[in-house]
Amino acid sequence: SAALPGTAQAQREYRFEAGVAGAYTSFGNSTELGGSVGGMGRLGFWVWRNRMTLEIEAGVASPKSSNGTGVTVTTLEGAALYNLPLGLYSSLYLKGGYGMVGYGSCPQNVAPSTICGSSNALLGGIGARIALSPTMMLRTEAIISRSSSPSFSNFAMGAGISLMLRSRSLTDSDGDGVYDRYDRCSNTPVGAIVDGRGCPSDADQDGVFDGVDRCPQSPAGAQVDPVGCPQDADRDGVLDGIDKCPETPAGATADRTGCPSDTDKDGILDGLDRCSSTPAGATVDRLGCPGDLDNDRVLDGIDRCPDTPAGTIVNAFGCPPTIDVDRDGVPDASDLCPNTPPGSRVDQWGCPVAAPDTTRPAAPRDTTRPAAPRDTTPAPSAIPAAAGPPGAANPGSWTVPGTAFEYRSRKLNPEASPQLDSIVAVLVAHPELKVEIVGNAQDRLPPAESLKLSTDRAQAIRLYLISKGVHDAQLSIRGRGANNLLTQDTTDEARTRNRRTEITPVSQP
Fold first, then answer.
1. Cβ-contact 91, 4 below 8 angstroms
2. Banded pLDDT at 92 (limits 50, 70, 90)
3. Rounded (10°) angle between helices 417-429 and 447-467
4. CA angle, corner 48, sides to 43 and 54, nearest 5?
5. What are the C-alpha distances in Å from 406 to residues 142, 423, 438?
6. Residue 194 to residues 123, 204, 228, 348: CA-CA distances in angstroms?
């Protein structure tokens, strides 16, 4: 606690107090003494930051007894005063102590008609110091003393002058309410909350003291501004000081450590990437979307032949399909019999043909009539009447279930390979058969995202078929989003049925 409150430069610390006073004392009835005016002197020592005073006091009075005899009454007291500030210098106080009162000597061999000798007494009272100047006080008090043998009480009221000796000014340089003499932290910022020693506290340990800190519950480790509030310079929702990636671009999605992610590894951060499922290796623009400069439906970055002329048939790598594993002269992309034995004679589809019979001469051709045109139409049995598996959406079509893809992804699961390979077998065997790959999505995503995901899945199946030898010209793709639901049911099983891909012939031989 501080010394007397008020303007810091006006306060004083008191050391000693000396004073004189006049008092009127009313004696107890058993003393048979009348009231009397007397005088007293006191000397005090101030302790505990002007809150407590220890003093001794001596007084004398000359009351008359009931038979008219004058009696000299002396007092010697020790007391403690608890001071209560009142303004800058004045104060109220409570007083308590112990004293000895002498009532003169008793005549020998004669019974006294009034009290005589000495008596011990407990005393208590209340008083006030009214400042006439910083070092001079008008002091008044009312005291009652209680003697125990014999038992009686005296009451006194006094007023006098006290001088405050060796007092000195108190200052509070940092204005924290704790005077410099007692302040162990003398440079406390203005407004900071301090303890009794004048030292500030910092509850959230952010380096800004309580009372000045406008954000007193800042998370541990967060960097704060001069008023104690944390900052988020990159506006990613993770506070500076906690943010391990403090320069995250605006709009990028960050994890709890403040670092952005790039799910498809295309160099465009999630949150900024408008094509978040770009295939690995594809070249993307500043929005994260892949391009196809030569329009061969193989994405730039994946395309090993990025300058293919328009209309050129390409394989899954964007190059004309010139690979010929069995070396029969028919590229694998068109070869219906890719494992022809070496040396075999093959037709235009890469399949063996019977060698001409050289044991008998060929019949002469009648040159008088034109030769009949060759019928190149495949036999009706070349293509199954219903190419799709049981349960297909339409006869002659295939339905690839939603389980063929990872959830909300264009990535094919390995379990889809057997069905897709059976489709490859039909399309490779019948290159004249053209199909449309139509992607469908469930209804949980926004329409634009559903449309994009269904298109991406159709493209994924197209690339798979091409990689297995299906000619690019046989395939076209389309995304329908959630515009053609099989069921309106909201169960997970129903939504899985809805997110399907349908492969439907668009021309039959």
1. yes
2. very high
3. 60
4. 25
5. 95, 20, 18
6. 39, 15, 17, 97
Q: Are 340 and 326 in contact (CB under 8 A)?
A: yes
Written as six digits, the tokens of 25 are 């004392």
Question: Position 405: which residue type?
Answer: F
Asked if residues 8 and 18 have their Cβ atoms less than 8 Å apart, the reply is no
Lowest mean pLDDT among 23-37, 367-381, 384-398, 451-465: 367-381
Instruction: Measure the CA–CA gap between 458 and 83, rounded to whole angstroms.
Output: 92
Specify whether the CB–CB gap between 46 and 29 falls below 8 A. Answer: no
Cα torsion 455, 460, 463, 464 to 10°: value is -140
Spatial distance between the Cα atoms of 286 and 138, rounded to a whole number of angstroms: 87
Predicted pLDDT of residue 20? 97
How much is the average pLDDT of 263-291? 85
Strand-pair category, 151-165 with 52-61: unpaired
pLDDT at position 114: 64
Residue 110's CB: how many other CB atoms inside 10 A? 7
- For the chain, the residue count is 509
Structure token pair of residue 477:
């793709």
- From the list 503, 476, 470, the residue with the least C-alpha distance to 338 is 470
The neighbouring-strand residues paired with 22 are 39, 159
DSSP H or E stretch at residue 426: helix 417-429
Q: What is the mean pLDDT of residues 457-480?
A: 91
- The span from the CA of 392 to the CA of 376, in Å, is 30
Contacts of 362 (CB under 8 A, 6+ apart): none
Dump pLDDT digits (tens) for 400-411: 988 889 887 888
